[in-house]
Amino acid sequence: PADGKMNKIKWILTWPLIFLLFCTIPNCSKPRWERFFMLTFILSTLWIALFSYFMVWMVTVIGYTLGIPDVIMGITFLAAGTSVPDCMASLIVARQGLGDMAVSNTIGSNVFDILVGLGVPWGLQTMAIDSGSTVKINSKGLVYSVALLLGSV
Questions:
Q1: Under a CB-based contact definition with an 8 Å cutoff, are residues 102 and 93 in contact?
Q2: Are 59 and 77 in contact (CB under 8 A)?
Q3: DSSP state of 30
Q4: Which of 1, 35, 93, 115 shows the smallest number of beta carbons within 10 Å?
């Protein structure tokens, strides 16, 4: 009974977002929209970018309000929040007896995040937006990040 009520509450809270996505992204799994798979991919990517922007903005505001440095907020909330789906996927695959896929997922997703998540914006900044410029890195949290990475390995 309690689980049914929680599902209803979750559905009520997420319905506006689901409706917005339903109206703006074509469902290419249906025969009518099959040819629009690239549009579905591009619109989904744009929505993810928008959601990511708002997530970072909200975490920054919450950290500023509570007096928590951006470095700590980024390491704990943003990094953990983006790693949970990868962790769940790895757990599901590992339970199916495919441990090598679980390990490759964890390593591959981090490599992708670093190479694409940092490389593309920095490449655009130095090649297209401000040609010949350099990217200044705020390295306050670098020691914490490296220590956490080595500890997790």
A1: yes
A2: yes
A3: S
A4: 1
* Domains in the chain, number: 2
Q: Indicate the burial class of 10 (C-beta count within 10 angstroms; 0-12, 13-18, 19 or more).
A: exposed
For 35-39, 60-64, 75-79, which range has the lowest pLDDT when averaged over its residues?
Answer: 75-79
Half-sphere exposure of residue 130, counting CA atoms within 13 Å on the CB side?
Answer: 7
Mean of pLDDT values over 51-78: 85
Matching residue, tokens 């670093």: 114
Look-up: residue for tokens 């990517």? 45
- Judge if 47 and 74 occupy the same domain: no
Note down the domain range covering 5.
1-67
Output the pLDDT for position 143.
Answer: 75
Out of 49, 67, 85, a domain closes at: 67
- 100 and 134 both lie in a single domain: yes
Statement: the pTM of the whole predicted model exceeds 0.90: no
Residues of the chain above pLDDT 90, percent = 25
Same domain as 25, residue 77: no
> Exposed e or buried b for every residue in 86-121, given b needs 16+ CB within 10 A?
beeebeebeeeeeeebbeebbeebeeeeeeeeeeee
